[in-house]
Design a protein that fits this description.
The protein has 114 residues and is mainly α. It has helices spanning 3-19, 24-36, 40-53, 58-70, 74-87, 92-107. The relative contact order is 0.10.
Length: 114
């Protein structure tokens, strides 16, 4: 994403969050934008804030798991994916990513991320 587009998206999401700090969708979108721009710590914070508001959203847990997996933080990602499966047992992407984490942690070597 070009810097101008990023700046405009950031501004719009900031405005939404100033108006309503508990807007889970805005926090999730902010996290996605931050992650695409490799601002991983900020993205993690936004997702964690969204989960404070609504810890039953399996999609938030999945996004947080994906963020940790992208950073090769397999043990933390595994926790997130287990939560996804607890909340939405049939969500196959989380099952697949959990298997990646389990295999890596079992063998302690990098695996292909799907």
């Amino acid at each position: 994403m070009q810097n101008k587009e990023y700046d405009r998206c950031q501004q719009l999401l900031d405005e939404i969050l100033q108006y309503r700090a508990d807007h889970v969708a805005a926090l999730a979108n902010m996290a996605s934008l931050l992650q695409r721009n490799q601002l991983f710590s900020d993205a993690q914070f936004a997702l964690q804030q969204a989960l404070v508001i609504d810890a039953e959203r399996f999609d938030l847990w999945n996004n947080l798991g994906n963020l940790h997996l992208r950073q090769q933080r397999y043990a933390v990602a595994r926790i997130c994916y287990r939560e996804v499966i607890r909340l939405q047992p049939s969500f196959s992407p989380a099952q697949a990513q959990l298997a990646v984490c389990e295999e890596y942690l079992k063998n302690r070597r990098p695996m292909t991320i799907h």
